[in-house]
Fold these 2 entries.
Entry 1:
Amino acid sequence: MSVTWIATGTMTAAKKSGVNFMTLLVQLTDRHMVPPGELLYGNTGSAAHLAECVRQSNAMRPRPDVVMITGDLVENPDK
């Protein structure tokens, strides 16, 4: 699945105060969305796959602080 877990940083001020501060990021990258009814690369529905990624992100515990969508959002921008 293309849900990526990235835990970043301990803030210096928080560290000095004895508080461990983590930011949990979810990165959904290179979604390559195609129009409804089309299959991405002939074998997967991009909307269904994105919905599964969102479902998994929403189910994460602890909850992510940030969800980023990066890379190519659509497969063919002309459609």
Note: Residues 5 and 26 are 5 Å apart (CA to CA).
Entry 2:
Amino acid sequence: MKNEKPSNIVEDERVFTTKEAAKYLGKSPRTLEGWRRNMGGPEYSKTGASKNAGVVYRKSKLDEYLDRYTYSSTSEYPK
């Protein structure tokens, strides 16, 4: 079984910049920057080890974040 990849690898998963992720979520880039500083919002990755390395968001992590905040009624909102 050559060329098999682990099942947890998403092949060719879309990666978003902060600006693209913000648009996808209907938020501003500044909102995502604030969430990162305050340890909130969707998970993100750094493109290197330095403090100034770029930030990217995997589409699957953005979708997971949206799923966590999906409601069918206002009575379901957390109190």
Note: The longest strand covers residues 55-58.
